[in-house]
Amino acid sequence: DLKRDRGVGMNLMMHPLLMPDGGLVIHDTSPLARVDACGRVEWQIDGIFHHSAERGADGAIWAVYRFPVPRMPNVAPTFNDEAILKASPEGKTLLLRRISDILDANGLGGLWRSHPYVDDPFHLNDVQPVLTSGPYWQRGDLLLSLRNLSMIALYRPSTGKILWHRVGPWAMQHDVSIVDDHRISVSDNHWRFAAPEREVDGLNRVAVYDFATDAVSFPFAAATTLHHIATRAQGRATPLPNGDMM
């Protein structure tokens, strides 16, 4: 109940998405809600939403969704059964697809099923819609960031196919963005999950992957070193038109 459980005094409005009318799409590991420019709730979608929401080329909203009760059999009640969710600007669910089903359908289920059991095997933290077609993707495709697999995937919802995926050299990353028609950037938290304190391995990095050359570079290494950017979790990196990164 949004009014009862997530009132103004409690809702952190994580990663608010600004809408064209001045309203916001918000959550706080809670139902997803849209408020207008005066703060009035227009709609909410039940479930657990976390991390960022993004607008697709058609104006629909892509969000990170977690089932309150796992649909996966033979797991603990605390298992994070995650999915991608597409919603209309009016708050209607248009698509809901589980990450485990996506991986299994593309022969990649072993990336997590072959590891010891954990409650959070995927940690989906970004669903980035492709807004314009290019030589390596089409308008309507999605870039998915699966933190706990250190994996970025290019996914086509219309066919259910993963067209490309890569694990590393980023480690426990947050946020994937499109730089131009052949490059993507990855906000790489670069932290060691297996270390005793799970600390950052030195500093955060911004990795740039080039589909044309299959090469990864780190063009902002000097800046991250100068400012000692070393957040263990969360964070975003947005490419700017002049080549800078915000």
Quick rundown:
The protein is mainly beta and 246 residues long. Helices cover 9% and strands 36% of the residues.
Explain how this protein is built.
- The protein has 246 residues and is mainly β.
- It is built from four helices and 15 strands.
- It has a seven-stranded antiparallel beta sheet with strand order 1-2-3-4-5-6-7. A four-stranded antiparallel beta sheet has the order 8-9-10-11, with helices on one face.
- Strand 3 and strand 4 form a beta hairpin.
- It is globular and about 45 Å long.
- The model has no long low-confidence stretch (mean pLDDT 93).
Tell me the layout of helices and strands.
Blueprint: H1 2-5, E1 17-18, E2 24-26, E3 30-35, E4 41-55, E5 61-66, E6 82-87, E7 93-98, H2 99-105, H3 110-113, E8 124-129, E9 142-146, E10 151-156, E11 161-167, E12 174-178, E13 183-188, E14 205-210, E15 215-217, H4 221-226
Antiparallel strand pairs: 1-2, 2-3, 3-4, 4-5, 5-6, 6-7, 8-9, 9-10, 10-11, 12-13, 13-14, 14-15
Q: Specify the number of helices.
A: 4
End-to-end C-alpha gap: 35 Å
Provide the spatial order of strands within the biggest beta sheet.
1-2-3-4-5-6-7
Parts with pLDDT < 50 across at least 5 consecutive residues: none
The helix/strand class is mainly beta
Radius of gyration from CA coordinates: 18 Å
Features:
4 helices; 15 strands; 4-stranded antiparallel beta sheet; 7-stranded antiparallel beta sheet; 246 residues; mainly beta
